[in-house]
Design goal:
Layout lengths: L4 H26 L1 H37 L1 H18 L1 H13 L5 H18 L11 H36 L1 H23 L6
Helix pairs in contact: 2-3, 4-7, 5-6, 6-7
Keywords: Membrane, Transmembrane, Transmembrane helix
Length: 201
């Protein structure tokens, strides 16, 4: 059977287009999940932008009310702060001292815990009295030297952190003012503890 060359070319074109269409359909089906992810991300981003806009509007309105009517919130804020100082003076005192002295205040509980650990281990050594050679004084000195390495590491770390803290407060006046106010607040709370603040019933 004889087919003209034009017919052969047409059939080849039809077959090629059919195969190409199948591959395009398969490739399109493979990226449907990507389209779904893009839709979810787009809707999520729009929802986040909507929530951010609402919260921004509420914050602006709140700041506007505070600026226009300072008496509405200043007196209740001072009263609530004073009551908090009276109810939790130790927490306020420790927090203010921590801000004023900086990281160096961490050495106080560390040294206390270390000395307690040395004394505890030293007292436990009496259980083996007579089994371990040497004098009792030598055992105590050995324990102190054993813990000395960890103490030096902590000292070096705290000293570096304190140096950075002092640099920040010396370079930024606002931080220095905040640090001094924290120290004054600590003195005020200490005076309140000394004078005997009564907890409200």
């Amino acid at each position: 059977m004889y087919l003209p060359s034009q017919s052969v070319v047409g059939l080849a074109y039809i077959g090629l287009s059919g195969v190409t269409g199948k591959h395009v359909a398969q490739s399109t089906e493979g990226y449907e999940w990507f389209d779904a992810i893009l839709l979810v991300l787009g809707s999520s981003l729009a929802h986040v932008c909507l929530i951010f806009g609402r919260w921004s509007r509420l914050i602006v309105l709140f700041i506007n009310d505070i600026v226009r009517n300072p008496s509405v919130w200043t007196f209740p804020a001072f009263d609530a702060s004073y009551r908090f100082f009276q109810n939790h003076p130790h927490i306020v005192y420790l927090a203010s001292l921590s801000i004023f002295f900086g990281p160096i205040i961490l050495l106080v509980p560390f040294l206390l815990l270390q000395e307690i650990g040395v004394l505890f281990a030293f007292n436990l050594s009496f259980a083996s009295h007579g089994l371990i050679p040497g004098r009792v004084e030598d055992h105590y000195e050995t324990l102190k030297e054993h813990f000395m390495e960890s103490k030096e590491k902590v000292f070096a770390s705290v000293e570096a952190a304190t140096s950075v803290f002092n640099d920040w407060t010396s370079e930024h006046p606002l931080l220095m003012i905040f640090r001094v106010l924290s120290g004054l607040l600590g003195l005020y709370v200490l005076y309140g503890l000394w004078s005997g603040w009564n907890h409200p019933q």
